[in-house]
Amino acid sequence: MAKNALPVTRAENFATWYQEVVRAADMAEHSGVRGCMVIKPWGYKIWERIQRLLDKRIQETGHDNCYFPLFIPLSLIQKEASHVEGFAKEMAVVTHHRLVMEDGQLKPAAPLEEPLVVRPTSETMIGEAFARWIESYRDLPMKLNQWANVVRWEMRPRLFLRTSEFLWQEGHTAHATADDALDETRTMLEVYREVAEDMMRIPLIPGQKSAGERFPGAVETHTIEAMMQDGRALQAGTSHYLGQNFAKAANIAFQDENGQQQLVHTTSWGVSTRLVGGLIMTHGDDDGLRLPPIIAPHQVVILPIIRDESARGPVMEACHALAKRLAAQHYAGEPVRAFVDARDDSAANKRWGWIKKGVPLICEIGPRDLEKGALALYKRTLPANEKSFPEQEVFVSHVAHHLEETDTALFEQAKAYRAEQTRDDVPDFDALKAHFDGEHKTGFVRAKWSGKPETEDAFGAFGVTIRCIPYEQTGTTGPCIVTGEEAATDVILAKAY
Amino acid sequence: MAKNALPVTRAENFATWYQEVVRAADMAEHSGVRGCMVIKPWGYKIWERIQRLLDKRIQETGHDNCYFPLFIPLSLIQKEASHVEGFAKEMAVVTHHRLVMEDGQLKPAAPLEEPLVVRPTSETMIGEAFARWIESYRDLPMKLNQWANVVRWEMRPRLFLRTSEFLWQEGHTAHATADDALDETRTMLEVYREVAEDMMRIPLIPGQKSAGERFPGAVETHTIEAMMQDGRALQAGTSHYLGQNFAKAANIAFQDENGQQQLVHTTSWGVSTRLVGGLIMTHGDDDGLRLPPIIAPHQVVILPIIRDESARGPVMEACHALAKRLAAQHYAGEPVRAFVDARDDSAANKRWGWIKKGVPLICEIGPRDLEKGALALYKRTLPANEKSFPEQEVFVSHVAHHLEETDTALFEQAKAYRAEQTRDDVPDFDALKAHFDGEHKTGFVRAKWSGKPETEDAFGAFGVTIRCIPYEQTGTTGPCIVTGEEAATDVILAKAY
Question: Which helix (H) or strand (E) element contains residue B339?
């Protein structure tokens, strides 16, 4: 067995492995500001792919992009009590709008009349706008989305997963009826599921949050829950039905068809750069990142092998010709993204670089391949040194098939891992505690739960939460995992990021 | 002459007219936070068009997108003295990272060890990263770009033109030599010129800033200067050669090919949502916004005329069929963007709505048009009630021509206005003062200038600045407009936004 490309394996230390993948793939790093990351080009290109796929679906489902201010006045935040409670501990506060130099040191000057909070999310700002914009039922539904940065002060930051500043989209909608708003909430969760599962190939459990895990101010929170390769859960996206809570706080009222004043029903939903962390922890292996083809910025990287300068011209020409022919092929409705890496370095160094970055297919073309019209093909889902030698023409005509193969392999592997790490035979609370207590006891447990809110805290003692009440219920009954009483509801229990 | 769609004309009050265009086109509004705007869907779609066109060119010229933190530690800002001086007065400062409720009021708690500035621009943050990332000449050039929000506290805000928070892109590059960095500076100014002039159809004067108008910390600032319809200048984009100033401050060094340590040469360049303001003030008329076709989110809006419910089916079908045929046509390399407005409102109301939003072409199709295969066509560059009745087939095959016509007309009108408002026959400083002194004395004056820095302040007395030293010089000599001494350099003088 060849040595792996990373200095640490998943089995040895998952947290360190994660950092090493991010570093080796050159995706991001910590900045000098606590909890704030620098997203480097490869990490950002992956985020841009996610953005593009998601934005298309957000538009197709009838939402308009817009942009609301970064700052929220304290008095506005204060209007929705449970919302304040949820975010107060992690809000960055702007108190001054000028600096002066005093004794060679810059100091804040010119205090603001009212301190401003850097948005942790924009329900309050957008709610205030809805209150101004919505007058009659004709204005409904109002369906907006914004791509933005938000700040939630983070004491234990991890790149992509938990950062004080992160990038996301937040959708905000207002509806005439609860039914419409609930439809919207579910529609957007399905959009998230489609992008994260069908495109990013992260197996998901969609479901609803229990009361203790809901978004501050929400009536219902819907979620997609994924399992990382250390058996922990990652909440990959959430969609909230806010009922009339924010409508009451901001007085978002409309005149209905009968001339009566009513409050709207609102929703909000968001996914963030955290998805990139989920991608890494779902598909990465001990050689680095592995990218599903729909997400990969480059699907095929072509490396010229030039040992002798006289061969440079024809080899480079063959590489660019191949890239061009590949770009005329399609995968998942888009032209194949092929990239010729002409940097001045050895092919082996470059190949290992792209392996660590997770590119699905790597081709090498050298002088001897020219005569035969062949190439050396490496697939990211096979061991790193395994290669085949297809004819170029055959490779071009089969490229969509090769990408499909990668796509399927990544998804199947992730599903198999999740299946291994999921138990539905934990009989009672003591057995549950025994399962999860201890550092390496992770995975999903599917169990029955009575749904009594006061029982939710019980899991906290061993760091477990109810990840969701899955949409897909078995329909059977059995003893509640906490109280032992007869219960019909399945829940997913896990330790989570 | 028909009444105009806006309550005020450009001639009556340009500043109020501007606000009315933004309001009537539903582009943006002030938020509850001083100086921060809400960009509404129509305004944001226009910004997205600008983003897409610009981002394509930024990538094609070899730059990678990435993302740096929103917050900058005070100690980092402090490193480059002239940079600090330029921005200290307008920096928003985060001093706390928590809120607590005291006597029913939210109060900032948990002071930060070091206050953080909300980025006014990212030279210092990116310079610090460059210093870590760049080791040898092989790492150069390093060419990055980010799309982000920035904050410069603004006491007299105007939508899009001057807001405390704005959206922009900022490019940051590091090079081995001054020549490479200067090439980059000019290349990116040309990219800006291309998007702003060839696509947004804003006539521009590209040139260099005089010392007094340079970016804080820059050795050279290059600019594109536009003239608004009140005769004032708008700086539409800038590209800075920063020399080794930021390299010195952040110690961005590299080992050259001879093994010697050297400092890099850096550049930075940016355009912002201010461009949207420039678009409005260049092309708007007394009926509202007028959009050049390349920028228009919808190039053709199709309005069904339904007076009788029985006609709804066939009319809607004809409208959607027309939209589909238009989408198969191309303008400027992209499919024509046609939109069927099926909202439940009168065609006249809807038509006026789209006129105010600046859509280039509006088509109406009613029951009588169906038999004839015709439509009613309104062009935004013609008087609002003027219409023609082309056959649908003819309109479809000519649509690119109609769009081209709008494109050219807007550019020619803007150039003609600028020519009218430009003088190159102002003989001396007294004449210059007489020209500009007084509320309505605006426009561009092209004059000779000795280039002596101490003479720059002279114009301040009547609110004029040197907008730029145009690349296109006449090559003649004449008396300096300030000192009267023989001078060879042409400058553009104007009052500016």
Answer: strand B338-340
Q: What are the angstrom distances between the C-alpha of A369 and each of A206, A320, A327, B155, B482?
A: 48, 14, 21, 66, 71
Residues of B in contact with A153 (CB under 8 A): 97-98
The string of DSSP codes covering A307-329 is SSGGGHHHHHHHHHHHHHHHHTS
B148 SS3 class: strand
The secondary structure of residue B398, as a DSSP letter, is H
Give chain A positions within 8 Å (CB) of B39.
Answer: 66-68
Range(s) for CATH 3.30.110.30 in chain A?
423-494
Q: Which residues of B touch A67 (CB under 8 A)?
A: 38-39, 44, 47, 167
Task: Identify from B78, B90, B106, B160 which residue to disrupt to test chain A contact, counting A C-beta atoms within 10 A and taking the largest count.
Answer: B106
Model pTM greater than 0.80?
A: yes
How far is residue A80's CA from residue A73's CA, in Å, rounded to a whole number? 13
* Minimum Cα–Cα distance from A76: chain B residue: B32
Assign domain B14-283 one CATH number from 3.60.20.10, 3.30.465.10, 3.30.930.10, 2.30.40.10: 3.30.930.10
Homologous superfamily of A300-405 in CATH?
Answer: Anticodon-binding domain (3.40.50.800)
Tens digits of pLDDT across chain B (497 residues)? 457 899 999 999 999 999 999 999 999 999 989 899 999 999 999 999 999 999 999 999 999 999 999 999 999 988 888 888 889 999 999 999 999 988 888 999 999 999 999 999 999 999 999 999 999 999 999 999 999 999 999 989 999 999 999 999 999 999 999 999 999 999 999 999 999 999 999 999 999 999 999 999 999 999 999 999 999 999 999 999 999 999 999 999 999 999 999 999 999 999 999 999 999 999 999 999 999 999 999 999 999 999 889 999 999 999 999 999 999 999 999 999 999 999 989 999 999 999 999 999 999 999 999 989 999 999 999 999 999 999 999 999 999 999 999 999 999 999 999 999 999 999 999 999 999 986 668 999 999 999 998 899 899 888 999 999 999 999 999 999 999 999 999 999 999 99
Q: Which CATH number is B300-418's, of 3.30.2270.10, 3.30.360.10, 3.40.50.300, 3.40.50.800? A: 3.40.50.800
> How far is A167 from B64, CA to CA, in rounded Å?
18
> Considering only CA atoms, which of A430, A466, A421 is closest in space to residue A448?
A466
